[in-house]
Amino acid sequence: MFSTLLIAFAVVVVVNCLFYMLLGNYAFAKSSQPTLQSNIPVSVIVCSKNEAENLKNNIPLWLAQEYPNFELILVNDASVDTTLDVIEHFAEKDSRIKIVNVENNEAFWANKKYALTLGIKKAKNNHLLFTDADCKPASPLWVQQMANHFSIEKHLVLGYGAYAKANGFLNKLVRFETFMAALQYFGFAKLGLPYMGVGRNLGYTANLFYENNGFMSHMYIRSGDDDLFVNQAATKTNFAICDSPESFTISTPKKSWKSLFNQKRRHLTTATHYKLSHKIILGAFYLSNVLFWLGLILSFVFLSWKIVVALLLFRLLVQYIVVVKALKKLRENDLVYFVSVLEIVMICFQMVIFITNLFSKPKHWK
Q1: In angstroms, rounded to a whole number, what is the distance separating the alpha carbons of residues 44 and 74?
Q2: Averaged pLDDT for residues 37-48
């Protein structure tokens, strides 16, 4: 029994380390830097639902982008606050703003994908950038950096949507979970397996959108306007990764465990609709993390502590080499000292969400 447990735990450690080594392909890769600056016409599309205050703060930042040729499509998705008033106020002062006012209808009640589709149809340019109303660009070069990665071959640009730093453990957990998601979708994309992106910072062409029939194949799913579209439209060669610090967007993180819990419930539900190969790879990586920590506890009980410590140190070394490098790359350096604690809490949090989703479905996006 003891020898079987040792072999099983050693296999888990090796498999888990292999996953981290694969993700290291991104962590240690140089950030992609196009040689030429792009001046292609760009349409920035922001879908807003009851986001009046965020729009007051962020519309000036979007308009201040140092890019010569872009329009700003502001979509009011049936808001009940003063969102439309705020949008109209700014539109009166800047002709680059185009307004799409969406009213609820019975077929697409509270469906963000419907609102985004109308925004895309309104855009006059083929190259589209997407962000959320509560996201501010990290620099005046956000549009330029993202647009630089479009080309004849590249119709999809994956960016990094960071969360603002604040005090408290919850903030660290939110940012660590976001970082780990980015490490995975950037890492596997580097290996030719692009499977998701985030709507807080995403670009693709209108041609790609229409060639894939937009969101029609998953319009009935409330969430997934970003990751499900990328999952169906991305190929091994038609995407680019944009991860320069100037290209980041920064969002306001959830400030309560309940709101974070509800948000992640929706995200996990969406992931069940990924391609089978993607679900298998992501599931195997998550399972290897779970089995590592469970196996560690059992091994300390039944096996020689020297062997267990050796396997533990080996796994932590491999993980830290990759994760610390990626944390610095994505400017999340302050999380370095909390990696193991945050990983354990994140695994438990995700497990609770998974069990909860088995018994009830999460609500829609707003």
Answers
A1: 8
A2: 92
Question: What CA–CA distances, in Å, run from 156 to 151, 152, 195, 352?
Answer: 9, 11, 12, 33
The rounded distance, in Å, linking the Cα atoms of 126 and 94 is 21
- The residues, ordered by sequence, that sit 6+ positions from 216 with a Cβ below 8 Å of its Cβ are none
Number of Cβ atoms within 10 Å of the Cβ of 321: 15
Domains, the chain: 2-27+277-359 (no CATH), 42-255 (3.90.550.10)
Q: How many Cα atoms are found within 13 Å in the side-chain-facing hemisphere of 330?
A: 32
Torsion of CA 71, 75, 81, 87, to 10 degrees: 20
* pLDDT tens per residue across span 295-354: 999 998 888 888 899 999 999 999 999 999 999 999 999 999 999 999 999 999 988 888
Q: How far apart are CA 87 and CA 83, in angstroms?
A: 6
pLDDT in tens, 226-250: 999 999 999 999 999 999 999 999 9
The pTM for the full model equals 0.91
Q: What is the pLDDT of residue 31?
A: 78
Rounded to the nearest 5°, which phi and psi values hold at 304? -65, 130
DSSP string for residues in 56-79: HHHHHHHHT---SSEEEEEEEES-
